[in-house]
Amino acid sequence: xxxxxxxxxxKGLIMAFKEFATFGTLITPKILVxxxxxxxxxxxxxxxxxxxxxxxSASGLSILVLVITRISFELIMISFKNNxxxxxxxxxxxxxxx
Length: 98
Fold this sequence. Notes:
Elements: H1 4-21, H2 28-52, H3 56-97
């Protein structure tokens, strides 16, 4: 009735949900990456539109805002990366104790 592949897929879905429900996998970094790319596209389009309209100061300002946005997103992502690395260190230390 069920082959091994179906069982493995459903087992994978259950494990993925367990990781999600226990905060083993964080979704906020993925949302931040998507938001960053949406904002990047908006700022680039705005800079091009301003440049075609002859408003080079607004175009330069759009590029500056893009750089500031990148820096702010990097600062936020550092906290998530630190959490990930601390989790790895904790797992490695637990394996060493066993």
